[in-house]
Amino acid sequence: MSARMGYSSRLKALLQQGRLDEARLMIRGMAPEVLEEELLRLPPRSALALCSILKPPRLAVLIEGLSRREKQKLLSSASIPELRGLFLSLPERLLPELLNALPSRQKHPLLEKLPKNLQKLLQPKKEWPEDSVGYIMSGNGVVLSPRDTVAEALDKIRRDAPGKDLVYHCFVIDGERFAGTAALEDLVLAVPEVKVAQLTEEDCHAVPPEMDRAEAARVMSRYDVQVLPVVKDGRLLGALPFDDVLDVMEDENTELFHHAGGLYGDNDEGSLWGEALRRFPCLLLCLVTGILTTGIMENYEEMLSQVLALSFFVPLLIDTGGNVGAQISVLIIRSMGLGRLENNVLGRVLLRELLTALLLGGAMALLAAGRSLFIGAGGQVTFVVAMAMVCVVVASDLLGALMPFVVKRLGFDPALISGPLLATIVDVLGLALYFAVASAVLP
């Protein structure tokens, strides 16, 4: 046993050090089952290196013997060029299943790098939109009949389950009609003579293929299930397993963070031009904001020259307004993402935020007024700063709460207005309100 572990450690060290010729000599003549054991012991990067030194026939046998989860672990750290080399080394019959093991963030860039004949073979059918459940559903699973006994069902599972990740919930089909799911744990614990129909759960939260994949992820999270059957007109089309839903949630969170940082569009991996194009719109928006704010200040140049203390509080007011708007927009967008808010609650949300904003605005106004008195800005300027602070906080809070509903009603992702875009609007609004209050109060 110790000799075997020493052999594995030696192979791992050679692969990590890039000494591939020596590693190739070590595995020459190794039995397929032993090679598979060695592969599963290696970390993903070393496992990829091992695959790169195998001849195509031997690599095909190795990949074919891996389960879906093992394939996902192997491919988890692979770059697009590495994936392309792997796909070009394997026979075409293995490629669809291998592609299905990839998260969606890797599938599309990989397809673009493959030859046209492989793209045609692997390109998903356009029957369902890319953001739908039907586009990402899996087809592998164990199918049982309600008339099967538990003993017969377990025999089917033993025969059909290897390599299938949906074994924990078997699909019960009565003729062509989808009847429900049967949990593996129920089958294992049941008496062998019991019929599968008695263990079938009809309320298994089946979803239609047209459903948005993010909504399906929320369904799975809400009901804490491991697989969602995809059913249309009473027929089972496929299933959405938990690991695919994790990919969906990761994609959604990545998109949200990108929007919050002002990054729009797809990432063109390895392209400086593509990365610059993603970042330029947000920077252009900030430039436009700067032009608008300087224009507003230029319009009130005479007032600023007479009451210089007003300029001291410009950063304080617009920063406060930006932070308030960002806070409430994140809360609203997060609640929408979890399915807790619908369009018909807009009035209740705005009323609640109005009261909250008045409390926050009053507290911030007292602090800003204290700062104004401390630097000796005078009673009139202090009153202007306090009133403007209340107005800016209320306006920013209501705008930050309203915008996600408006954007969603227009058919866009509410996350688009988070981050720099909302902050830009709030900055201009806050500055305009500040000088409007100053114009009304000061002589």
UniProtKB/TrEMBL annotation:
SMART domains: CBS. PROSITE patterns: CBS. SUPFAM superfamilies: CBS-domain pair, MgtE membrane domain-like, MgtE N-terminal domain-like. One of its GO terms (cellular component) is plasma membrane. It is a multi-pass membrane protein. Residues 199-255 form the CBS domain. The keyword Metal-binding applies. Acts as a magnesium transporter. Belongs to the SLC41A transporter family. This is Magnesium transporter MgtE. The lineage of its organism: Bacteria, Thermotogati, Synergistota, Synergistia, Synergistales. The gene is mgtE.
